[in-house]
Structure formats: structure tokens, C-alpha cells
Design goal:
The protein is α+β, with helices and mostly antiparallel strands and 348 residues long. Helices cover 24% and strands 25% of the residues.
Length: 348
Amino acid sequence: MMVLENVSLAPLTTLRVGGRARYFTEPKSAAEVAEAVNFARSRDLPLFVLGGGSNVVLSDSGWPGLVLKPATSGIDERMENGKTFFEVGAGEEWDKFVARAVARNCAGVECLSGIPGSVGGTPVQNVGAYGQEVSETIESVLVFDLKDGQVRELCAEACGFQYRTSIFNTSEPGRFIILRVTYGLTPGGKPRIEYADLKKHFAGFQQTPSLTSTREAVRRIRAAKAMLITPGDEDCRSAGSFFKNPVLGSDQYDELTRRAAAKGLQVPSYPALDAQRKVSAAWLVEHSGFSKGYSSGRVGISRKHALAIVNRGDATAADILALKDHIQERVEELWGIQLEPEPVFVGF
């Protein structure tokens, strides 16, 4: 295991902000992960696990201890009970795995094409997009348990998946280091064409879209929203959607629609989680004075996606947080709703 010192973290994130790590390592196996953990503990260093850097805001002061970036690799396949199981190293690029699955004509992750980051990060927030979530296909997660130093396999049920959450970011944050994820996909399955953008894209098609054409469509749609990493595109310097879509109870939803009606507006929504309603965070942001292309010094809102806070160049983490706070305050003032951020905040 190689340990580096004073490593700049900003280039390892899609937002391109953050300070330096006192120590940094990329373990390639469970044994090296254990070695890294022992290194940190023997020196009484705080430990932070960094994945693909696509859903994190790192403090300008950096990290005073050890940053561990899992580099476990490999994609193994096996057939069992009519499913194709892919065992994927946590350090693998997520979209590389999706491309592999689609090339093998296996359905279940095609709508998650183009999402930046690593495989190990997908169970943490139950990554989802365009009508699919990874929890629908995750069979198990191999982890290093910091509580007792053991490597164990967690079944999907044990991961406690819900909308954008799991035990990894709720009840057991910081306990597990993800080493490998096993996905069970459907060979020859049909693509998931349920999301409005995809339905619109394929409207008028005479034949059912293939997995390949669905993947290509998702990537084109993401690119149009600057949600596909494209070199040189300023609007891609973001952490993706910065706020979660709020899920409201009936009373809160009624209050929101009342406020909207008073302004001559109608709230877009769709049924979610039993009797509750999920509403568009993007709509709330845009109707609170933060339209696409909004700028505030070195930060702003993507010109293509209202939920993406972007680094317009040389921004700091403090700049990002200032805009986040401003948006949250205005949305709560106007609509009575507290927006919850999606990214993980580190070192603040």
C-alpha cells in the first residue's frame, strides 16, 4: 500500500473544489484497505472514504487525516436462475459497468447510463435516474466493517434502501468501506421507458427501443442537461442534482399548492411513497428566483439544469455553500419547504 502526503483533492471531484489531504491512499484489495485503516488508527488520524467524487463537496481546509479512495477493480459475470450476476469492484467507473451490461444485453441499469462516479458509491445513496434505482438490481454488497475489522457480505435487504438513502448514509454512516457490489440483471430484458424525457424521445418509434438505443438516449438527454461529464463544458463542473425532490405529506402539499395558486402557478408532482407526494425541487428552485444560468460571482446555476450548482471557475467550497444556503433560505421563505442537499459535505 502506497501512502501519499499533501494531495490536492479538488481534481478528484466533479465540482473541482476542496483543499488537500494530509495523507492519501488507493487500496486495491481488502487486505490493503485493512492496512490503510490500521495506518490511520495507529496515528489517530480521521479517515474519509472518497469514491468517484461526483456527489461530494470538500472543505477548502481539506482533510486533516487519511483519505482512502477504494481502487478494487474487476467485473466478473455468472449466470444463475435466469439472471446474469455482475460482481463489480468498488473502484470501477460506474458508466463502464453500465456499458458492459448493455453490451451483454442485460437489462436493469440502462437508464443509469452516463452517471459519473464509481461503482462503490452507488449503494450509498441508492443512485437513481430516469425511472431506475440501483436498489432494484443490487443483490449484495461486500464491505470492510470498521467496527470489527471484518469483511462481510450484506444482502440487499440489510442495506436498507429507500429513496436516495441506505444504511451507508443514515443509520450506519462511516461504518463500512464498500469493496464490491453484485448486481443481478435480466438477460434479454426490455428497457425501462417510463420517465417523461425518455417517452418523449421515443415517441413515434414503431419498435420497442433496444437497451443500446435507450442507453444512447439517456446519455444524450443527460448531455443536454450538462449531466454528462464533457471536457470544457463549464456547466459540467457540478455535483449533479444538488437538492433532493421533497416528499410531502398531504397537509404540506396542500399548503404548497395554495401558495402556488396565489401566484397563478401549478405545482408539478407525481404520486410517491404511499399517500405522500414528491414534488420537483427544480421547480421550487426556479420559482424562487434561481433560473438556469443564474450567476453569483464564481458560482451559479447550470444553464441546462436548474438543480445543478456549478463552479464557474476558481470557486471555493465556501462559495458553493453560500449559494446553497441562499437557495434553501429563499425556497423556505416562499414555499415553506426545506430543501435537503444530495451531496455529502466533508471537512466542514
